[in-house]
Design brief:
Blueprint: H1 2-10, E1 28-29, E2 35-39, H2 45-55, H3 67-71, E3 88-97, E4 100-112, E5 123-130, H4 141-151, E6 160-167, E7 169-178, H5 182-190, H6 200-213, E8 220-227, H7 238-249, E9 254-259, H8 267-276, E10 281-283, H9 287-296, H10 298-302, E11 304-315, E12 320-326, E13 346-349, E14 353-362, E15 391-400, E16 408-415, H11 425-440, H12 452-461, H13 470-487
Parallel strand pairs: 5-6, 5-8, 8-9, 9-10
Antiparallel strand pairs: 1-12, 2-11, 3-4, 4-14, 6-7, 11-13, 11-15, 12-14, 15-16
């Protein structure tokens, strides 16, 4: 009996982490479907979460790997816009794909206008802190306190900070307080203790009410929800929570989410609430990640410079036989959504950069994955008047400036003659990150001869000026993943399918 009790108390807790199922984007024949449309995404939570699992000696479940969030974790040094009148600048690069020389990679880079910390408008921040019993672990509430402690020195007298905690019932821990009273704010944080069940819905409602009370016209008004996502009482249905958050965003108060911990982390809910809340989602696995998100990238985390940003690419079937968007599976939009300003899309923060990759097969390249239709209906599409013969695609972006309801349009024609002989540093590193994600998800879209060695060699060749060490850390993660997949038994999880 004693041995059985000892086993029950020492047995590891079941892993109940939850991730949204991701079906990889298919390869489309351009003649049959020439237009691709998606919402931009600046979230980075997947990368830090994958890093946490690899550091623990575990391969991540494939649905934890969102390739666009891996790509957007890194700064690619895109050219910056000259003024905030047009709040971002678009860059593109075309070159052969490292895993298949018969195919071409298209890199789209969007760089947001950067605002110096001193020039940020006053901020009204509500820290919505999960203090439920599940947060009573070192990588949860204690790490959360250390994370917010790094934010406090960045705050100013004109800023306001409130703290709402929720566990069983929600409560106001700190009324709106000037940001330069760091001692008072930190004392309130230190008083937080974990215990009870998680009434996330009630906490979100109180957080929004507190944000409305301290609302700053023309300022930053944002709720920062810090949680492991384990909502289990009150409004816990994800659809109901999304409706609540979507209704509140119309009042000008955004919601960002910061994920913590392991074992019961609800990634799907944390990411989705940030999406519908006009915010961004990050995962905090260390004090260093808190430094990156809340200090180094404070402007992009808090200040939105462009909203409802959508990308649409129309490929020319006379030049491009096939295409595939890498990642952004849960950000896809209908073709008609691009022109509909009522359809919600992603936001870009000050200084944010966004990266998207397409893999293309040009007509006659021999890189096609499928055959053209034998019984195609109708005549071949004819290009519009004025289209040049080597025009590869038309890239279009729509965005709204803060406070505006009507979107603005940017168009750029991409030409076949712009395809480089070899990818530059930016594209090589982006390809390495995409290959890393593809291998963790099974590697079905990579060439047979391209594996972990290819990812590592690409990343090493594109390490560049790695001032913060993020690219060097990525190299170490790729080496760790290679080792873990080599040790994984055959058939042990979907992630193992990407091993060489």
């Amino acid at each position: 009996m004693q041995a059985q009790l000892r086993y029950l108390t020492q047995a590891p807790k079941p892993n109940t982490e939850h991730y949204e199922t991701i079906a990889p984007n298919p390869i489309y024949r351009t003649a049959e479907r020439p237009v691709s449309t998606f919402s931009i995404d600046v979230d980075t939570g997947s990368y830090a979460n994958v890093r946490r699992m690899l550091a623990a000696g575990e391969l991540p479940p494939k649905d934890a790997v969102r390739i666009e969030e891996l790509l957007n974790y890194f700064d690619y040094g895109y050219p910056r816009p000259e003024s905030k009148d047009v709040p971002f600048k678009v860059s593109t690069e075309l070159a052969p794909a490292p895993w298949n020389a018969k195919r071409v990679l298209l890199q789209i880079g969007i760089q947001g206008f950067e605002v110096e910390h001193e020039q940020l408008p006053p901020a009204n921040l509500v820290l919505l802190v999960d203090t439920s019993g599940s947060m009573d672990e070192p990588d949860k509430l204690p790490l959360l306190k250390r994370a917010f402690a790094q934010l406090l020195p960045q705050l100013r007298a004109q800023d306001r900070v409130s703290i709402v905690a929720y566990a069983g019932s929600a409560g106001l821990v700190l009324a709106p307080t000037p940001g330069d009273r760091g001692g008072e704010i930190m004392d309130a944080l230190e008083r937080l203790q974990a215990g009870g069940s998680t009434n996330g819905g009630e906490g979100i409602q109180l957080a929004y009410a507190t944000a409305r009370q301290a609302y700053i016209d023309g300022g930053i008004n944002r709720v920062l929800l810090a949680t492991d996502g384990d909502f289990n009482v009150g409004v816990s249905d994800q659809n109901a929570l999304e409706t609540l958050v979507a209704d509140q965003r119309k009042s000008g108060i955004a919601l960002s989410t910061l994920g913590f911990g392991s074992g019961n982390y609800n990634d799907a809910m944390a990411e989705r609430l940030a999406d519908v809340g006009n915010g961004n989602h990050a995962y905090i696995d260390s004090a260093l990640e808190a430094q990156k998100v809340l200090v180094e990238e404070m402007g992009s985390t808090l200040l939105t410079i462009a909203g409802d940003v959508k990308v649409q690419v129309e490929f020319n079937p006379a030049v491009v036989a096939e295409y595939r968007l890498i990642g952004y599976e849960n950000r896809l939009l209908k073709r008609e959504d691009f022109n509909n300003d009522k359809v919600d899309a992603g936001e870009i923060g000050a200084g944010h950069d966004v990266t998207a990759l397409y893999e293309l097969a040009l007509v006659g390249s021999g890189g096609e994955a499928s055959d053209p239709l034998r019984y195609a209906q109708g005549e071949s599409a004819k290009p519009a008047a004025g289209v040049k013969p080597d025009e590869l695609a038309l890239l279009k972006l729509r965005y709204k400036r803060p406070g505006e309801n009507d979107s603005r349009l940017i168009e750029t024609a991409l030409m076949r003659r712009d395809i480089g002989a070899q990818p530059g540093e930016r594209l090589r590193f982006a390809a390495a990150v995409a290959g890393f994600g593809e291998l963790l998800r099974g590697g079905e879209h990579l060439g047979a001869g391209f594996g972990w060695d290819g990812v590592i060699d690409l990343a090493r060749s594109a390490r560049g000026d790695d001032r913060n060490g993020y690219r060097g850390e990525f190299l170490q993660l790729a080496q760790t993943a290679r080792s873990l997949q080599a040790k994984a038994p055959a058939g042990a999880g979907a992630a193992a399918a990407g091993a060489e």
